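Can't paste images in this forum, so I'm doing it all in text. The chain is below; anyone willing to post the predicted structure tokens underneath?
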Amino acid sequence: MKTKIFLALSLVLCACCSRLAHKTDVRPTPQWITSEEIVDWYKCDQNHRKVLCVLTPYCPGCTYQLKEGWAEILNELDTTQWKRMCVVLVDNDSCAIDEAQDFLAKNGLDLNLVRFQKAYFDTSYFNTIMKGFSLRGLNLCKVEGVPQAFLLDERNNLLVWKTYYTDNFASFVLDTNSNDYNYTPADLCWEVIGIEDFSVPVEGYRIVNKQELQ
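Text version of the structure:
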């Protein structure tokens, strides 16, 4: 009799554990977003600071940035002060979505912050989603490629990382053989998260005019 009771309890516990394991594997339904909806997302809010990240699955740079702190920062930002979104550019099919969610979860990102979009991350794409950013009359040229992290204050002033003096970044920030210059949006790190007003120049972190480089 005791053996039968033990076996029954064991089966119940196994069933409970199985359901619990299944529950923890449940992922949010993929949410799709258009470029226009991205613009509405940040333009319609004047009360919060915003961070908008753009990634693609299996991109070496995206993997590096997620592991080096982006996932942690996005997951842990104070939501009373910040709105957060990570736009992941993928093909529009279920296999691509599953693989993207596997990639993001493996690298520690809260999948509830993710919105999917079918697009290509060229200059025209970024020009579309940046059209509501406040650049304070200064030039921002050739934002392209991923990963990108756009940091906006309550008035949607964009903070841009000025790195053209840094040799390590010169290959993709400043093309000295061209009449145009590339600027990279601010890196997503706790240091720049702490800057209080993006409209005020801060050493190392400010929008620069193309003429300043000449």
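The CA atoms of residues 68 and 207 lie 24 Å apart. The chain is about 35% helix and 15% strand.
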